[in-house]
Amino acid sequence: MLNKQDRILIFGAGVIGSMYAIKLIEAGFDVTLFARSDRYKSLRENGLRYMEKGTVRSIKVNVIDTLQNDDIYDFIFVTVRYDRSESALLTLKDNQSKNIVTMTSNSMGFSSWLDIVGDRLLPAFPGFGGQIKDGVLHARFLPKIIAATAFGEINGVVTERIKNLAKILKTAKLPYVIKKDMQAYLITHSVSDIAMLSFLHSENKIIDKKTARTRKMARKITVTLKAHLKAIQKAGVSIDPPMLKMVLKFPNLFLDLFFMAWLRTKMVRDMMLPDYANHANNEIVQLSNDLIKFLSQNGIKSEMDSRQIVPDR
């Protein structure tokens, strides 16, 4: 039987980490948040604040800013952006916890992560997003049929820890799906992120609303997404979710109209706020560069416009 008091550390107190913390605390789990700087101070003083039905609420959470090697948890959820993933794993390298769940995109496979934490690694991806505004979490949920927490062993085997993680999420009433090929799922997701979010920056500045809503911008997303999907297919990656295979069959005009509508949504307006856009750009740059490396390693010449990619910093 799963003990509802299993200890869970959430390494990263941004949108994703905060959302999992709320759901898991409400479900009765022993949850600790790892945060730094102003976020650590805010959580200590005000609790974890979040918006629910127009009202700001607060939930008490245990928060730390240092982690001892013998401070052992049943699961550690790493909820940082991709461009910070290796740094986070290096921080966790000597901690003795046995299960490290990476809740982020990945565009080139798990080799570098495995080199750091070994077989403790359990790749996953969150099922929601949002923003933190003035210290308050504004979560954004997608329909369960579209978004659920995805996770799975690298080799696809349904192990005991997979079953335990599933029980934890079920208890917290968080929809989930167990994947047999997490690498394919994460690379596919990275491709869609690169295509749909790279437009946020142009010529080293955040793009304006008028430009973002043009047919030209929508066509850029359409062409980029199709090129990326074709490239990863050539590299032997199974497109997952499979419905994205339909993108390759749809006429460009149909996709242009879809993306023009998407570019006018509140979600995209929020994405264009400076804090989100700048952080997203750092992640997209890293994902793009690593995708190029992955394709090159598999003998695939990328069709990406190299002008969109800048060197690692």
Give the topology.
Layout: E1 7-11, H1 15-26, E2 30-34, H2 37-46, E3 48-52, E4 55-59, E5 62-64, E6 75-78, H3 85-92, E7 100-103, H4 111-117, E8 121-125, E9 128-133, E10 136-141, E11 149-151, H5 160-171, E12 176-178, H6 182-197, E13 201-202, E14 205-206, H7 209-212, H8 215-234, H9 252-262, H10 266-271, H11 274-297
Parallel strand pairs: 1-2, 1-6, 2-5, 6-7, 7-8, 11-12
Antiparallel strand pairs: 3-4, 8-11, 9-10, 13-14
Helix pairs in contact: 3-4, 6-8, 6-11, 8-9
Q: What are its keywords?
A:
eight-stranded mixed β-sheet, globular, two-stranded antiparallel ribbon, alpha/beta, 313 residues, 11 helices, disordered C terminus, 42% helix
Overview in brief:
The chain is built from eleven helices and 14 strands. The protein has 313 residues and is of the alpha/beta class.
Provide the helix percentage.
Answer: 40-55%
Structural class: alpha/beta
Overall strand count: 14
> Which consecutive residue ranges, at least 5 long each, have pLDDT under 50?
305-313
Query: How big a fraction of the residues is strand?
Result: 15-25%
Number of helices: 11
Give the topology string: H per helix, E per strand: EHEHEEEEHEHEEEEHEHEEHHHHH
Looking at the structure, what is the overall shape? globular
Strand neighbour order, sheet with most strands: 5-2-1-6-7-8-11-12
Distance between the termini: 47 Å
Radius of gyration: 19 Å
